[in-house]
Amino acid sequence: MLHLRVVCPPGRTVEVRSVLDAEPGVAHLVVHPGVAVHPAGDLVEADVARECADDLLGRLADLGVDHDGGITLEQLDTVLSDRADAAEEAAPGDGADAVVWDELIQRTGEESRLSATFLTFLTIACLLAAVGAVTDSPVTVVGAMVLGPEFGPMAAMAIGLVLRRRDLVSRGALALAAGFPLAMAVTAVATLVFDLLGWLSSAGLDDLEQMDFIYEVGPFSLVVAVLAGAAGMLSLTSARSSALVGVFISVTTVPAAAYASVAVIEGRWSEAAQSVLQLGVNLVGAIGAAAAVLVLARRGSRRRGADRALSDG
């Protein structure tokens, strides 16, 4: 269940209540007249089944409440109520399959911004991946993959492509285009320091036995990227963020970027080129698969909406 809060002018409270009253997937509808201060108005609250949330948000936006009032939505972890159970049963579809598009756009939009925090996490992840690669430590590389924040911009680009939102595509592309070169440059400088201190040598890289997957590009590189991108978008649309950890571990973006920097400093040009290719394959494959998942989800939403319109008619 999701908790919906609507601040609206007093003149629109009746319309807002009517929209919520007419939805069988709504429970615990409460109206607080005149309690809102900025902007002044009434507060309407309700618990909503996830599968009907997207349609409700659209209807409320049609009333203009998002312009002269406000709409907020938050996840409820525990709801003990027979009325809530009945609302979820009455709502069409399955909550795990429902996509709340406004929630998805808001979430990925925030995670895809080019910020100091994003750049710091990506740089630290690349540094960890570089250390893991040169020490032949898969555990360190996996830790770097989990730390990497790059899936946010990738998801934003996928959503932007499907919804034709240039702002999301450009925002995600900017974060990736600026973030990876900066992180790779810092990693290259760190590798040079390691080399000067005698901690690293090109000959030592010949003995790495478990790091070949970082730069060896093959058909399974694309397969893994596609599966990870699809799983990542499914975890976002179904609000199951725990599954994202597995996605982060699957996508070989951060390790490839980090090893490319190491290989350049050590003059291993072929491995550097393959690492960059690996990075590109993973980015394109994951973004394309995530977009495909959204296309299928959007078609499913339209189909359910058409079926519901026919049943109401």
TrEMBL record:
The chain crosses the membrane at residues 114-135, 141-163, 175-197, 217-236, 243-265, 277-297. Signal peptide: none annotated. Keywords: Membrane, Transmembrane, Transmembrane helix. The keyword Transmembrane helix applies. It comes from the Bacteria. This is DUF389 domain-containing protein. It comes from Pseudonocardia tropica.
